[in-house]
Structures are given as structure tokens and as C-alpha cells.
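hiii so my PI (J.) wants the whole complex modelled not just the main chain, which honestly fair. so below is everything: two entries, each one labled with what it is. i double checked the lines twice but i was tired so who knows lol
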Amino acid sequence: AQKVTQAQTEISVVEKEDVTLDCVYETRDTTYYLFWYKQPPSGELVFLIRRNSFDEQNEISGRYSWNFQKSTSSFNFTITASQVVDSAVYFCALAYGQNFVFGPGTRLSVLP
Amino acid sequence: DGGITQSPKYLFRKEGQNVTLSCEQNLNHDAMYWYRQDPGQGLRLIYYSQIVNDFQKGDIAEGYSVSREKKESFPLTVTSAQKNPTAFYLCASSITQGISYTGELFFGEGSRLTVL
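here's the output for the full assembly
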């Protein structure tokens, strides 16, 4: 069965701290995609990144970075020098074909 | 600008009433989806459609119905048979390019339904 686990329900950090959001997935498929989405208070989910199962290169985009490790079935997301605007719920998702499985989300609060 | 429009943003319903949530996209995407979000839970798939006039049940389709008469539109009806309809509903769309590619989902801003 396909499953995504985000063990951290809520995280609070002070502005400028680094924070890592964990994501562990389960799948028997060899071809799949992993995603991270941000859900700000407005409600709309905003796409952050997509990774396919054959590309384990880590990626950095500004203050955001992602670490994909197939050996541990993890796709962790790090925010460097967090800002108040980073406060949101973050979802990790696994997709195989056109089917998406979402994790329960991690609520990040960045305090000024 | 291209995007997904959901309406209404907030909706109140009395028990026993059916309500329809609207979802319109101008992204020219073939696939459209409806998800339900409850506090502390991930998104759960209600229905999805990969082409006009065709749709499939997701994990929690009971008590819901959809139609896909136009590529741009995928309305969701929450029927009186849905036992616990109070939730946040999200509509999404994506391109489809065969089984070897999975495009990201684009989401609307959601509709919050409250049953009184």
C-alpha cells in the first residue's frame, strides 16, 4: 500500500532558525513522484517541488532545500533562516500514475 | 490569469440538504480532482476525472456526486447521504501526459462547508 508519514504534527521555531520537516513514504512502485506543498492560511495548496524516483539529487531553491534518500524512503524539506511568512501547513505527497497520496501535514509556526 | 476558481468560499447547510460546490479551471488541464480536508488529516480523494464525461470514485466517494460535462468544470454535490459533511473541500487539476509522467496538482482556494 502507498503511504506517506509526516511524524511532526506541529513545529514552532523562532525567526531565523533553520527547520527540517520530515517525510517518510512507502511504496512498492519503482516509478513514482514525490511532492511538497505549502498551505498558507488562505487555504490554497501551493506547489513547491516535484522529484521523480530516479532522481536522488538534492535540490536547493533559495532558502528551501530538499533531501531525497531512497535508501531510507525519505524526502525531507529544510527551510534555512526561517521567516514569519513561512508559517503554514506543509504537505508531503507521493504520486504513482495519476494517484496522489498525501501525508497528514506538518503545521509550522515561525515566531517573530 | 490562469487558475482554478472555487465557489462559494464559505457555505452553510442544514441537515438533509444537498449542496453543490463549483470548480472551474482555465488551465486547459484534462484531469480534475476533488479532495476533502479535515483537521489533522491529509487530503483524501473524493472523485477524479481524467477526461470529459468520465469520472472515477476516490477513497471516500460515498455521499458525494460529480459531473464532468465540460473540460473546464467539475462540480461536486454533497448529498444528504454524506454523514459528516462539515469539512474543507479542495478542487485541483493537472495535465496528463501518459503513465510515465505525473504533473503537479494545481489547487483552488477551497470551499469550507459547515452543516448546521
